[in-house]
Amino acid sequence: MIDLEDARQIVGARNVIDAAALRDRPQDFWINTPTQALGLVKPADTGELAALLALCHKHSQAVIFEGGRTNLVGATQSDGETLLISLERLNQIGAPDSKGMTIEVGAGAVVEAVQQRCTADDLRFGLDFGARGSAMIGGALSTNAGGFQALRYGVARDQVLGLECVLADGTVLSHLTPYSKDNTGYDLKHLFIGSEGTLGVITRAVLKLHPAPRSVNTALLAFETFDAVAETLGMMRRDLHGTLSSFEIMWAEFFHFNVDALLGGRSPIEGRFPYYILCESEGFDPEEDAGLFERVVGLALEAGLIADAVIATSSRQRAELWKIREDFEAEMQLFKTMIDFDVSLPVASMEAFVNDVQRRLDEEVPDHLGLHVLGHLGDGNLHVTTGLPTPEGKGEVRALVYALIAGYSGSISAEHGVGVAKRDYLHYSRTPAELATMRLLKSALDPKGILNPGKVI
What we know:
The chain has 15 helices and 17 strands. By secondary structure, the protein is α+β, with helices and mostly antiparallel strands.
């Protein structure tokens, strides 16, 4: 165990918080219990972080990295002997390179701040999700976050051109290349993207950018069958000429619950349907794009695929439609003990999977408080949430759903990571050989096991 005084010598006394002060702070956004840790240290740059990790490695000091603290899998769960390292001061955002379509940012830069900086230069950073205002780039990359626009721009991994990180012993790996073609041996950055800080900590990244769209067209669509939903997705991908950026599905129970909670029951679409889609296209010719969007929606209506539709005619109406999809306050109050799942599976298997979950819950967990299902249909990602009156039975519900996912050859974690919450279920999605290889990598890069111990594997 290190002496916090040694950490103060590296980062300055004002950037070290001791254990007693941390106990006044909740563990993270979701877990409202006091933080237990040896202390919290805030390095200002890569050099300070490297020196700090070298010190911790020498003394076999376990460390956990913090970003925006909005993770959903207990990734920053600590104990009284763990040192927390916050990356919040590594928040530099460089000037976008409009010629190369890139931007260099620090791991502590908030995602929304990066988005806004790019927008100011008429550019688009392709990653977007609900926690944009608090989540940091380092956390988004370490969990390989997805979000609303992965259908068009890809997940976090797809945004990265170059990366800098620090290994457990303080070694700095800096390969901040601003181009995509670089076949010079192993592409090491992909070891660290998605590894949740267990192999090394990301400090800086060169991110890929895109031209900022000139138009956005949004619609809420209602469907009678899941097959019609899937067919419409394919149709829009083709007929919108590559401009489809979001295709968000909501099962009826979640949709009408949020409509009641947020809009006083005044649904944008009359009646009740099994499935709702919030879709959006972004293009570069406002007049032509709007006409094309309306024509494609109209053709799907005429073909009997869409049962009803509303196309947003103002930014206010667009925001109201997105609020139904994004706002979870009422849901958090409904589910006293919330049990959420972030899963991937083939689109063709989604309907059967959700039906199986509903049936098994009704049969085996009769006191469950409902089943809310929504997600990013275009990339095969569903968010499945239920709840219980008390915490008892939470483990049984998790085992039930994860076993079903395994039966459909799905992934138990699509975009939220593994952390502590899903670690014991990882075998449902990974073979023994894969798990053994993960442990081999961990032991090679972090032989003393000091980086985010107990997380992922």
